[in-house]
Each structure stands twice: as C-alpha cells, then as structure tokens.
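hey m, so remember when u said the tokens were messed up on ur end? i reran from scratch. heres the input so u can diff it against urs
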Amino acid sequence: MQPIDVGFYSLFPPIIAIALALITKEVISSLMLGILSGGLIYAVFSGGGLVAMSSIAFEIMAKTVGTMDKFYIILFLALLGSLVCVVTKAGGSYAYGKWATQKIKSKRAAELATSLLGVLIFIDDYFNCLTVGTVMKPVTDKYKVSRAKLAYIIDTTAAPVCIIAPVSSWAAAVGSTLYETGAFSNELSAFFATIPYNMYAILSIIMVVTLSATNLEFGPMANAEWEAEENDNLGAIDTMITQGEAEPNTKGTVLDLVIPILALIVFTILAMLYTGGYWDKPISFQEAIGACNSSASLVLGGFWALVVAFFQFVPRKLISFKDFMSNITTGINTMVPAYIILTLAWTIGSLCQNCLGTGQYIGMLVETSQLPTELIPAIVFLVAAGLSFSIGTAWGTFGIFIPIVVFICQATPPEIMTVTLAATLAGSVFGDHCSPISDTTILSSSGAGCNHMQHVSTQIPYACLVAFCCFVSYLVAGFSGGNVYLTLVTGIGLLALTLVVLHRRAKGRLAKKA
C-alpha cells in the first residue's frame, strides 16, 4: 500500500481510538473502530469503497504483525506467560512472597524495592515491563499496593530509564538517529549530550521514587490505593496466575523463583550480544548491545529460562512433566488479551505512520510555523508528545521528528539545538508513556496484572504533572540559553511543590469519603 497525503484527516484514527478508550474504558473495540476509520479515510482518498475499508485495515494488520520483530514480541509474551505459570505452580512465587514479606517490612519498602528493580533492568523496556511485575507482585500484593500503582511504577521505570541509560536498546536507537542528522561527531556523544536536558526521564524517575518513599498520592491513583488499603481491592485481573486453580506447591524455595528470573536476564543479555555480533566482529559490549535485535534476544532469553525451569522443577518432582506442559498452555492463554491489544495498537500506529502520513503532517505544521527561538524547545516538546500519544510509539516519533528539529534549529545557537533535541526525546517518551495504544503501556498493565484502562486513567495525571514541569523547564532553558542547572532546578522545584499541594487536596477529599 502506497502512503497518501490526507492532511488533517490523518489525525482522526488515533483521536477516535483514544477518545473512545478513555470514554468507554474498553480498549479493544476502541482500537478496532480507530483502525476502521483509518481504513475508510484511506479508501475514500484513494478511490475505494466500504469493502476496501475493511480490506485495507486487515491487510495492514497482517503486514504489521507478520513482521519478524512484532512476531518475536508476541512469542516472548507467550514464553514469559508460560514461565510465570510454571514458576507459580512449582511454588517459587509462593516461597518468594513468604520470604520477601519477612525481609520487606512495609508498603514503602515494597514500592521502593519495585522501583529499584525497575531502574536496574535498564537494558530494554519490554523486558523491564514484564520481568518487574512477575518478580514483585507477590510482595506488593502482601502490602496492599494496588495493581494500578504497581503498573505505574513498572511503566515509569521502563522507557524513562532506558532513554537515559547508555547501555540499552534505546540508547542505540537514539544515538544513531541523532548522529545521522550530522549535528554530532558520533553516536555516543550525541546520546550523552541530551541526557541532562531530558527532563521527562529525570523528573519521572524522581517522581516515582518520591511516590514510593512517601504517601503522596492524588487523583484516580489515590482512589485506587484507598480501595486496596481499606477494602482489600487490589484491582487484580490475573488471579489465575497469582493464585492458581489449586494451592501452590509449598515445597518450592526462593531459588525456584530467583533462578528462572536470573536465567531470563542472563540469557537475554547473552542473546543481545549474540544477535549484535559480539563474538563475530571486533566490537565492544556497548556496540553489540546497540546493534542487537532486542526482540529476538528476548525470545531466546525466554526460551532458555523455560528450559532451566524444566530441569530445575521436573527432576525434583516439584511439578510433573504433564503439569509443566499444561502450564505452558495456561501461560500462553493468559497473555491472549495482551496479544490482541498489541496487535491492534501496532496496526493503528502503522496505519497512521506509513499510510496516512500523520507524522509528516504534524512535522509540516511545525516546520512552517514561525516560532520564536526561545519557545522552540517547549513547543517541540508538546508537539512530539502529541504525535507519540497519537501513534503510540516513541521510537517512531523521534525517528520522524528529529530531522525536522535539526532543520528548524539550523539558525539557533548549538545549546538550543541540543535542548530542543532532548525535548523531542522527552516529549516522545511522555506521549508513549501515557498513550493507551502504546506497547509499553499495554505490557506494563499486563505485567502488573492490572486492567489496562485503569492503568491508563491512573497514570495520566502523574505523567501530565511531570510533563507540565518539563514544559516550564524547557521555557526556562529557551530563555536562559540552555542553562542546564537553572533548567534542572526549575523542573525539580516545581515538581516538589505541586506534589505537596495536590497530595493535600487528595488527602482532604479521601478523608471526607471515609
């Protein structure tokens, strides 16, 4: 299918899908209607009819999911779901939860441990989203942390951490995209130059740690936490995984959870080195990670972790061969909702990006506008956020937008260009972070066992608060000539102030409710 220029109408599919998802709280039908509306727009502008509308929609879906990287992600979800079920059946999750509740003595410690684990798993955001939830659910459930809060912690320590971690799949994508503009001497210098100005990543990490260490909740998240604390309603939708159809095996040990998860981490990193050509070419660890196929590496890591679990559990008779295989099927089945949502999200993103030219249309609007130099970073942050929110991908957004930003900033000082490029990355991550059709948002709710739309609705106020502080920081950066210290102080100070004010208001409202 050839891309066509439909102008303003290219915004309709994501607007329809996102609006319906937020209104109805039902994401699958909303995404499907968004895709069909995009197919209708394409059919009308290309001379087709109603029959062509559905044909176009499903053709794009088949081509998108049929790509190797997308299939690898679905396969990894199946393997991870299987691993979780097998470990649970063998008693590993039960033993870990029992041990962790003895070592972790409070809700605050449980949330901080989850945040720390999320920050430590910085290699890949997909890997982070599903692994952290698997490991920490037994602990956070024990201390009545709502699944919405767990999903928020997972999501906020995924992409925002990866976008500033030098050794990650994101660093490779960002560095290569920036280097290709010709504005930097090499990929690594390009990546490091943007880190101090990537305000959304920095402030998101500060915020998630602050919320984990304190009781500063507000908005829908405060309600979710109140329900968990007062009514024991965690909002879990994966009771089959966490509890099983029968009582868990009490003979399992903590190592029966730790070893499979460590195997998943180790084999995934080794697979990244393998797919990146570390043993075939004279390249460094960083270069191999940058050149790896992260989705294929996740599949290899998941497969070998499942092999390790088999030889760890079956010979010790923690689980029979028959039960091991049946739990693989159960694990695959538990991931079916995630498969469907991801497939639809990828389809609408591909439709907007490759067929209707949504990114090119938004980029043209920015390129032709006459923005004052001082306002460029803040405006670019908002535009990148809107585009990323609409198409559900940070990578696609900065891939489209960075060349446009370089063109816009040709006549500006070098400091302003660096700030604006960082604002592009920050806006891309913000939009991706809170978009209902983003794959990392979907995987975070899946990993936490949380209703997807509850995760979206509770996370958006937190993400928007950070985005507001970022916007003000980029205004300061623009008017101060890119003063990094003033930019950071402004963002952190404003975040701290607004958190205290909003928490006091939420606390008063919940006190009346009680």
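this time it looks ok to me. The CA atoms of residues 151 and 385 lie 21 Å apart. if urs says something different then somethings off w ur setup not the seq
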